[in-house]
TrEMBL record:
The keyword Membrane applies. GO terms for cellular component: plasma membrane. This is CDP-glycerol glycerophosphotransferase. Residues 5-170 form the Glycosyltransferase 2-like domain. It comes from Micromonospora palomenae. Its main location: membrane.
């Protein structure tokens, strides 16, 4: 029997459903099935479910003939579930990476009727807030199971279906179903806890609960919020039916009902002002109807006062109290905002003064010996600008090179490197006076193109995904780009450095302007050509890699349209295939560092090298590269070592982000579309086989012919020494 059946109801969630399904199917855990329920959604939900079902046998798509609502849609999925446990996950939420093995371990060890898991609220503006798990259980319950009467505080966890995994046979024997209407979780989750003989808690965030900016029921005003009363009536009807077995829990359940009613009423985005008196009256009626004769644990202070006003039916007093509290909150908010506003004003004033300083420096002569370098939005000494800087110090020592870096990256600069910190007066002065400005991204919009100055755009990779103006056709990956502003920045370029004719063609259409193209190879790849065997041994020694170890470098790219997505990848399983001499280096995209993303947990023979300052070191140390749509494959191909394209979301990536060519059709080596296929490639040695070698040679002939170890020299002679040859 399958361990977990996921029931995923979906209605008007086409923008989120792929992330939800990928978060389940991409887990390092296979003992599952997914029943996707299209609740007669008017968008592409049904097609997405059919697509996933066609390519993954673990997925079954169910299309309902008419819209029935979230509760009945879950019931339809439950009827088709065959797993030992059922997990209801909404189509706009998603699972945390790597959580399923821990969930499965707890289910198998404890055999609970219900396992409650933790979650975070993931807001639409890319912030997150924690759940109440830590407050409810200051000391985690551990691995022991319990009944609700022993830990009644469990009722204070969020009453949703998706934060608990329920034993299917327990549900069937109980005869419990989701009721129709809004707030359907209430009449399901509380009875589940009341009836369960064995409750377990996993103190690990497993679900990202999406807080949508628009479209969510909790942000929709209307009289359907009155349906919350019927759901609570169902809870107490079940308690009446079950009698003495749950009687002692009635006070705790009643307190939750009173809290929930107040929560719904207090949310201005749910109950319109005209409906609040009627909603309050229903609250009072249910308070009197269901209040236990022995009382209940009412809260103290202001919340307790609210409970007493509801019990007495004192709407006017309640309303006046609410207005007074809102006025006090507004006053406190104004006071709290005063200091940030003052700080922001001071910062804006400082910025304005520095911009005026920059404009004044623009009126001074250009320094004919000054070259300014930057890379990756001032992240440090890296990429093509670093290689050009090193070559210029050797070939044109009369030119003074100055790097722009963030303050927190100063310590990453090589010893003796002259620099200025971004945002300081020296930064503005250097930008204004430099004759040469070299960057692998664009300088800020305020930077002026002075007559006599030379702007060099080195780029930072051969493009697989679409770039520049071509992104207008793929808005999911464009991220709100200002295309008019982009063209203004491109118009500053004097030179565009490309590594092959393919890049030249793509940049011409993506960034149309009057710059000159220097198709000379990539300066950063010179080191890959010129490195000696002794240098490679030294690098591997610094990384703690033995001479007989086989090193695989895994370097996936960033998904702009799915910023939290990580390709399904289990380091332990790959290392098992590689054997005892295998070593795995894992490097995330630099965007993940900029966004403060948590690193993948690694250890032993799997090492996270995302913070390693020089990616060329990692290329030289690695025996095999595994990547997807990253430009890393073009650089690594210079070494003529095996490359594997691992593209589990190939079609979705091409559709959402757009690609210039299909790397699985014109690959630099072997290709895997699933993690199982990736393991088989290594298990069968197809990674180094004749077919993979032929593919790599074709790829190298197309993209790497100019990388001969002298690209940086060619740039320096043309740009700094004005040598047209």
């Amino acid at each position: 029997m399958t361990l977990i059946s996921f029931v995923v109801p979906a209605y008007r969630v086409q923008g989120y459903l792929r992330e939800c399904l990928d978060s389940i199917l991409g887990q390092p855990f296979d003992d599952l099935e997914v029943i996707g329920v299209d609740d007669a959604s008017p968008d592409a939900v049904g097609d997405i479910l059919d697509e996933y079902a066609a390519r993954d046998p673990r997925v079954r798509a169910l299309r309902l003939p008419r819209n029935v609502g979230l509760g009945p849609a879950r019931n339809a999925g439950l009827d088709r579930a065959g797993g030992e446990y059922v997990w209801f996950v909404d189509g706009d939420d998603w699972l945390a990476p790597d959580c399923l093995p821990e969930v499965a371990d707890r289910l198998r060890a404890a055999r609970p009727d219900v396992l409650v898991v933790d979650h975070v609220r993931a807001h639409w503006n890319d912030t997150a807030t924690r759940s109440a798990m830590a407050e409810v259980f200051p000391e985690p319950p551990g691995e022991a199971t319990f009944r609700l009467r022993d830990r009644p505080e469990t009722l204070h966890l969020l009453h949703t279906a998706w934060n608990r995994v329920v034993r299917r046979e327990f549900l069937v024997d109980l005869g419990l179903r989701f009721a129709p209407g809004w707030y359907e979780d209430v009449s399901f989750t509380y009875p589940v806890l009341l009836a369960a003989e064995r409750i377990a808690v996993l103190d690990r965030v497993c679900v990202n609960y999406r807080q949508r900016r628009a479209g969510a029921i909790t942000r929709t005003r209307g009289d359907r919020h009155f349906e919350v009363f019927a759901q609570w009536h169902r809870v107490f009807a079940l308690m009446d039916r079950w009698g003495p077995a749950v009687a002692e829990l009635r006070p705790a359940v009643f307190e939750r009902m009173a809290w929930h009613h107040l929560t719904v009423l207090g949310n201005g985005e749910r109950i319109a002002p005209a409906l609040r008196p009627a909603f309050f009256a229903r609250m009072t009626a249910d308070h009197r109807r269901f209040r236990p004769p022995e009382g209940y644990p009412a809260p103290a202070g202001l919340e307790g006062l609210k409970h007493r006003l509801v019990a007495a039916g004192r709407w006017r007093t309640f309303s006046a109290l609410r207005a007074a509290n809102q006025a006090r909150a507004t006053a406190r908010g104004t006071a709290r905002r005063a200091l940030p506003v003052a700080r922001r004003t001071a910062r804006l004033t400082r910025d304005a003064v520095l911009r005026e300083y920059y404009r004044a420096e623009l009126r001074r002569p250009i320094d004919p010996t000054l070259a300014v370098y930057a890379a990756y939005w001032y992240r440090g000494y890296a990429c093509n600008p670093a290689a050009i800087h090193a070559a210029a110090r050797r070939l044109a020592p009369q030119i003074r090179g100055v790097w722009i870096v963030r303050r927190d990256r100063v310590d990453t600069l090589p010893p003796g490197t002259e620099y200025v910190v971004a945002g300081t007066p020296g930064y503005y002065r250097t930008l204004a006076r430099a004759r040469w400005l070299v960057n692998n991204v664009n300088f800020p919009d305020f930077v002026r193109k002075r007559p006599g100055s030379v702007h060099v755009q080195t780029h930072h990779g051969t493009p697989v995904k679409v770039m520049g103006l071509d992104q207008q056709r793929f808005p999911l990956g464009a991220g709100g780009m200002d295309f008019a502003g982009l063209l203004r920045r491109v118009d500053r370029w004097d030179y565009s450095i490309t590594s092959n004719s393919f890049s030249t063609q793509m940049w011409d259409r993506a960034y149309p302007a009057s710059y000159a193209t220097l198709e000379v190879g990539y300066p950063r790849n010179d080191r890959l050509v010129t490195a000696t065997a002794g240098e490679v041994r030294e690098i591997r020694d610094r990384l703690g890699i033995g001479p007989d170890e086989r090193v695989v470098l895994y370097a996936p790219t960033h998904r702009e349209h799915l910023p939290r997505y990580r390709p399904p990848f289990d380091p332990g399983r790959l290392l098992d295939v590689l054997g005892p001499s295998g070593r795995l280096l894992i490097r995330s995209h630099y965007f993940h560092d900029r966004a403060g993303r948590a690193r993948r947990r690694t250890g032993g023979r799997a090492v996270d090298v995302s913070d390693h300052g020089c990616v060329e070191d990692l290329y030289l140390a690695a025996d095999v590269l595994v990547t997807d749509y990253s430009s890393a494959m073009f650089d690594y191909a210079v070494l003529d070592r095996p490359i594997v394209v691992y593209a589990p979301d190939r079609d979705a990536y091409a559709l959402a982000r757009g690609v210039y060519f299909d790397v699985t059709a014109e690959p630099p080596g072997a290709v895997a579309l699933t993690f199982a296929e990736l393991l088989e490639l290594f298990r069968s040695d197809a990674v180094t086989g004749a077919e993979a070698q032929r593919a790599r040679q074709r790829f190298r002939g197309r993209f790497c012919a100019l990388d001969d170890g002298h690209a940086a020299e060619r740039v320096v002679r043309r740009v700094f020494l004005d040598d047209p040859a």
